[in-house]
Amino acid sequence: MSLILKEAIGPDGPSPTLVLGPTAPEDLSTDWTGRVGWITFVDGTSMAHPSTDVEIISPDNLLEINLFIEKASQGEGAQVILGDFLDNIMMSIGSPESFYSFFCQLASRVRLRKRTAILVIKEDIHEKPMVEMVKRFADIVLEFRDQDNEGALTVEMRTLNFADNIYTRWLPFPQSLRPLCTNYT
After folding, report:
1. Residues 102 and 182 in one domain
2. Which DSSP string do the residues of 37-70 spell out, in sequence order?
3. 113-161 pLDDT, tens digit each
4. In terms of domains, do 6 and 81 share one?
5. Which residues pair with 56 in a beta bridge?
6. Contact 58/65 with Cβ under 8 angstroms?
7. Which of 57, 59, 68, 161 could cross-link with 166 by S-S, CB 3.0 to 4.6 Å?
8. Any idea what the Cα angle at residue 159 is, between residues 31 and 166, rounded to 5°?
9. In whole angstroms, what is the distance from residue 84 CA to residue 36 CA?
């Protein structure tokens, strides 16, 4: 998430609405002034966060999540919604139908308001039908995978551009862009 904030949006870009899940607000060192929603497991209700700029919402409270995103994305101009909150929602929702209904509303809201949504999910922790549902609504999907190349771990990526019908092959992910260190000494 930090890399997306730094590289894709940049310090001069519009302040995104952060809708976080596994990533805690404290994990991002940002100077942005946009709203922050943290969709995380709590006691079933929203609760206070030490920072007044962060609203904590339970991932099974889809109505409250929708209301937060709706309020946060009001206004004019280019607005970005950035988040990894779908992981927590997908893990807590009991049925694919409920998730489909929620995600359809979210995707429609983003398109109707001419917003940009950058949503991150960890594909290997979810059932394939749920992942395919997210991909179905995406204009562009960036996929990453780890490959064992004769004992050396490499990361590859490919782009699936559904909007323009362009698909790339798996390519090595540049070492300089990797957010995590793989050397442990």
Report:
1. no
2. EEE---SSS-EE-SSTTEEEE-TT-HHHHHHHHH
3. 888 899 999 888 999 989 999 998 888 898 888 888 788 888 888 999 9
4. yes
5. 38, 47
6. no
7. 161
8. 130
9. 12
Record the tokens describing residue 66, joined without a space. Answer: 């929708």
Q: What is the rounded CA–CA span in Å between residue 167 and residue 159?
A: 6
* Domain encompassing residue 80: 2-138
Q: Which helix (H) or strand (E) covers residue 106, if one does? A: helix 96-112
Count the helix, strand and coil residues of the chain and give each as a percent rounded to the nearest 5. 35, 25, 40
Are 100 and 159 contained in the same domain? no
For residue 119, the Cα-to-chain-centroid distance in whole angstroms is 3
Q: Cα 1 from chain centroid?
A: 8
Helix or strand (DSSP H, E) at 64: helix 62-72
Closest CA to 159 of 147, 148, 177, 171: 171
Q: What pTM was estimated for this model as a whole?
A: 0.80
**Cβ distance 66 to 99 under 8 Å?**
no
pLDDT in tens, 35-68: 889 998 766 444 556 676 788 898 989 999 999 9
